[in-house]
Design goal:
about 1000 residues; alpha/beta; Rossmann fold; 6 domains; 7-stranded parallel sheet; 37 strands; elongated
Length: about 1000
């Protein structure tokens, strides 16, 4: 314990009050141990020059460079003078400036050819980088004396530690402070078990601390870094392993699957099958829910639920085709095997982008991007693919169609209409009549198989002839050609309609062997079909149609398939909702926490639509074993809120979807069994904890995020959660082009931005404009803004252009909307959306925007997640530098969701060389969410993984970088899990326990407990 005491010594005792105060206030360093773990950021060799070309604007830097020239200039009519010194390093030049009486010493020291270490804040003056009044330390002063060539060489090759510094304490001063405490490194407690250290070939901790601060060689630095990274990774993973172990000891009520309950009823009416990925993840979740300890699972990936067709698409019933919009629960439909099944669920899906599959015979069928098709390929068996997957992989390498759709089994139909003529005679009469208005009456089309075949034979005998093993009808008006093709397909055949130059159409016909196309003509055998049952049709192309109202139907049949337009076989997938229903079956309640009201309302709407009468438990017309699904948000009316609270406390509502309003004290549950947190990165730990605390025993927890998380981050930031990945993320979305708009440097770029918005609107599309602030009377300062930011005084006193940009208040929705409607977007239909609007108003705006009644939506980040308007193609983000990388990526994901390509314009007033602009350039440079999550972490560092301060100066990770050290983290996790499993109390590792106690102070211990 003496070692810990030595490292706990306050810096004030060793360094004196003044220095200790600066270190505490500006670098959060209080004890000897803090300073020993304040490692150099990099090392400069005295002979080495730093790349001046790479200096980041507006950051405090330390550089080693050579003086190129120095001159004193007069200003103010000779009354004032300044010293300008130019530094060079071969990659660039940097100007130093000193004013007034402060010029004398540097004028004497900084002679051309001299080398020194300089520290200061990089600013921009006259478009050139400069340091104003930097601190400096001459590096070649000793070289002037006659100490001999050996001493000069030793001096030149020494590695200079460059410490993370601040304006009040330059790196070389920190270096002197470290010299004063370095002897205490001998007392450091080594947390790594000796067997692990030796097995991994790591140096002892004392040696690592000496080598990191005062290396004799680059090999010393590598040894020290390897050891210190292991310390951080291992101690962190031990803390998380103990956390996971403690969770498994907590009691929880097992929520086991119940047969014949609401989940089975829901699955039976699902209009689609679960994908393999969804089945696997569902099993992981249900296995966890069935245990006597709380589930702690992170679910990564988007859970889509499309699979719809337009309301004017056709569905085959025993009486002929009926529009999708007329389908109702109980309607009988034909399934591909020829059997009949009833529709047992109808799921309206609002308006969606619709696509048209064009088949090899010229027929076409419409659907949304997620719709499922049973398809076959020459080199593969049958598969079920979405429209989106087919679009992405439509043709073989030789340019031929890759996929084909199987035929439906021909069935008898009975439309109920009268058929006074013999069907064959009717066919002959219509086929030989030559009247452009001639058609096959509906009663003869919706007729038994033998009658439909007789009509076809009559038509072909009257106007057709054999053609190479098949048959051709030479001249038919458009309507009759369509009727003939329809009849042939209804018999499992293949019909292609070819328009002729002079008006009529030619129809090429092939029928199965048992259905000859002619009765009287010779050569009537058609080409035999490949399956004996009907001909496959290849998918030739997939075309964009536009927005249409759509819906899903579910069919009570094991294959969940039905027959749609032109006798095409189609097929009609949910993870979190199924987990909720499983918990409701077990007698408990589920709460879903959404980050915004817009998203909560959307979840509520889609869940109730998909559940249908199962979401109307206790209501007239509701299912017997249904439940109530309630919405709870902060701005609900008093009566609706009171009813929702009552439904929760009585247990009437099995599912509640809400915002932070769920966390309030007055919200009580009957028996909370599962908490689902949507978009985890938007919630603080306290909020998660407050909701979990509402269960009689700890409820199970499922955290969902659609934001990609690198594996290393999942192992650290979410290290106490088991991870499930739904890797079928939406692929094949339209491309999104992203560009940075430098509004201050190039104002004409901003003008062009609004021209682009106009062009997209004129092309029938819509646009979002996002601002950081609302801008009404409650002008709240943005999170993280400096106090006083935004006052005119602050802006005028700002010392550099980036300060001006920083200190101007962030742009506001209400102001920007007004400027746009009176200026560049005058005449367009512009509306605003923000968090302080009444829920009905928000809903109304989103409905109108979704329905295409608005052109431009000026909004805050309430549209960041869950909002889906595929017709919106432009996203303009004002003051984009005020948003984080993952937020920008989420916002950009609102466009490019339809057929037309998306455009994201990141507007910023920050100067080109600033870190903020570099961040925006990185976002514009890639659409890969995993790559951006890496950039995001690199930008803000890891923060305090165990604590809440995501951007604090001090972090429990000083040497380890979550992004780059994946191997170390994975190995440390393995070692930590094994150690904790064998020795949960760490009785055999007293040094590790001591280190853990020091790391897990009260606040972090509480953080881990909340999880």
């Amino acid at each position: 314990m003496d070692g810990v005491a030595a490292l706990d010594e306050p810096l004030k005792k060793i360094l004196g009050g003044t220095t200790a105060k600066v270190l505490a206030e500006h670098l959060d360093l209080h004890t000897v141990g803090d300073l020993l773990h304040h490692y150099p950021r990099r090392y400069a060799e005295r002979g080495e020059l730093t790349r001046l070309a790479d200096l980041p604007l507006d950051e405090h830097v330390t550089v080693v460079a050579q003086v190129a020239d120095a001159r004193v200039l007069k200003f103010n009519g000779g009354r004032g003078q300044r010293l300008e010194v130019t530094l060079t390093d071969g990659s660039g030049r940097l100007q130093l400036v000193f004013f007034g009486k402060g010029i004398h010493k540097p004028h004497k020291d900084l002679l051309p050819g001299r080398r020194a270490m300089f520290a200061g804040k990089v600013s921009l003056f006259n478009r050139k980088l400069q340091l104003a009044h930097p601190e400096y330390e001459l590096l070649d002063r000793d070289a002037d004396s006659d100490t001999g060539a050996g001493a000069i060489n030793a001096f030149a090759n020494q590695l200079l530690p460059i410490y993370p510094a601040c304006q009040q304490m330059a790196s070389w001063k920190l270096s002197k402070a470290v010299d004063a405490v370095l002897p205490s490194a001998q007392d450091a407690v080594d947390p790594l078990p000796e067997s692990l250290r030796e097995g991994r070939g790591l140096v002892p901790l004392t040696e690592a601390l000496l080598k990191i601060h005062r290396p004799g060689s680059k090999a010393d630095i590598a040894d020290a870094r390897a050891r210190l990274k292991w310390d951080e990774a291992f101690v962190l993973q031990v803390a998380l392993a103990r956390r996971r172990l403690a969770e498994t000891q907590l009691p929880a009520v097992p929520r086991k699957l119940v047969k014949g309950g609401i989940l089975d009823a829901f699955d039976a009416k699902l209009p689609f099958t679960l994908t393999d990925g969804q089945r696997k993840v569902s099993k992981e979740i249900f296995d966890d829910l069935a245990t006597e300890h709380p589930m702690h699972r992170l679910l990564q990936g988007e859970v889509g639920s499309g699979k719809a067709q337009p309301l004017d698409a056709l569905v085959l019933t025993p009486h002929g085709f009926r529009p999708m919009g007329e389908m109702a629960v109980g309607t009988e439909v034909v399934v591909p095997s020829g059997e009949l099944a009833v529709v047992d669920g109808v799921f309206p899906q609002g308006e969606r982008e619709v696509w048209r599959l064009v088949l090899s015979d010229g027929s076409a069928v419409e659907c949304d991007d997620e719709h499922l098709w049973i398809v076959g390929a020459r080199d593969a068996g049958e598969r079920v693919l979405t429209t989106r997957e087919l679009r992405a992989d439509l043709l073989d390498g030789d340019g031929r169609p890759k996929w084909s759709i199987p035929p439906a089994t021909p069935v008898d139909l009975e439309g109920g209409g009268e058929r006074p003529l013999d069907p064959y005679e009717l066919g002959k009469a219509v086929g030989g009549g030559g009247d452009p208005e001639d058609r096959v009456p509906e009663a003869y089309r919706n007729a038994p198989l033998k009658d439909r075949l007789a009509v076809v034979q009559g038509l072909m005998d009257a106007g057709g002839a054999p053609a190479g093993g098949a048959a051709v009808f030479y001249e038919a008006a458009g309507p009759l050609a369509d009727d003939l093709a329809w009849l042939v397909r209804s018999l499992g055949g293949h019909a292609t309609v070819m328009p002729l130059r002079h008006g009529p159409h030619r129809v090429y016909v092939a029928l199965p062997r048992l259905s000859p196309p002619f009765r009287e003509r010779a050569g009537g055998d058609a080409e035999p079909c490949e399956s004996g049952r009907g001909f496959r049709r290849a998918i030739r192309s997939i075309e964009y149609v536009g927005r249409k109202p759509v819906q899903c139907i579910s069919v009570a049949h094991p294959r969940h398939a039905y027959v749609t337009d032109h006798f095409t076989v189609t097929h009609n997938t949910m993870v979190a909702l199924r987990a909720m229903l499983g918990v409701v079956d077990s007698g408990a309640q589920t709460a879903m926490l959404a980050p915004t009201e817009v998203l909560a309302q959307q979840h509520h709407r889609s869940i109730t639509e998909m559940m249908g009468e199962l979401a109307e438990g206790g209501m007239l017309g509701g299912a017997d074993h249904g439940t109530k699904v309630v919405l709870l948000t902060g701005s609900m009316g008093v009566a609706a809120r009171r009813q929702a609270l009552l439904d929760l406390v009585t247990g009437e509502a099995g599912i509640v979807i809400g915002t932070h309003a769920l966390i309030e004290d007055k919200v009580r549950f009957h028996d909370l069994g599962l908490v689902i947190v949507d978009e985890q990165h938007r919630f603080g730990v306290e909020q998660r904890d407050a909701l979990r605390g509402k269960g009689k025993q700890p409820p199970h927890l499922l955290v969902m995020t659609a934001t990609p998380i690198p594996r290393t981050v999942a192992m650290t930031v979410f290290g106490d959660l088991e991870t499930s990945v739904l890797d079928q993320l939406p692929a094949g979305r339209s491309p999104i082009a992203s560009h940075v708009v430098p509004a201050k440097d190039k104002p004409h770029f901003l003008a062009r931005t609004w021209e682009r918005v106009r062009e997209e609107v004129e092309a029938g599309h819509q646009a979002y404009v996002v601002c950081p602030r609302i801008g009404d009377d409650e002008d709240e300062a943005p999170k993280g803004a400096k106090k006083g930011a935004g006052t005119k005084g602050a802006a005028t006193k700002a010392s550099s252009p980036e300060d001006v940009a920083e200190k101007r208040p962030p742009l506001a929705v209400l102001d920007v909307a007004e400027q746009l409607t009176k200026g560049p977007l005058e005449g367009l239909r512009v509306a605003v959306l923000h968090g302080r609007m009444a829920p009905d108003d928000k809903d109304d705006v989103m409905r109108r925007f979704g329905a295409g009644e608005l052109d431009v939506l000026v909004a805050t980040t309430v549209i960041e997640v869950g909002v889906n308007v595929p017709n919106a193609t432009v996203m303009v983000i004002m003051d984009a530098d005020r948003f984080g990388v993952s937020q920008l990526h989420q916002l950009r994901g609102r466009v490019g969701r339809g057929a037309a390509p998306g455009l994201c314009l990141l507007v910023s007033e920050m100067p080109e060389a600033s870190p903020a602009r570099a961040r925006l350039a990185a976002v514009a440079g890639t659409l890969d969410g995993f790559e951006l999550s890496r950039i995001d972490l690199e930008q803000r560092r890891e923060g305090d993984v165990l604590g809440q301060a995501q951007s604090g100066v001090r972090s429990s990770l000083r040497m380890l970088t979550v992004i780059d050290d994946e191997e170390v983290i994975a190995a440390a996790r393995e070692e930590a899990t094994a150690l904790v499993t064998a020795d949960p109390e760490l009785t055999g590792c007293p040094e590790l326990r001591t280190t853990l106690s020091a790391l897990l102070d009260d606040e972090r211990e509480r953080y881990l407990d909340k999880g």
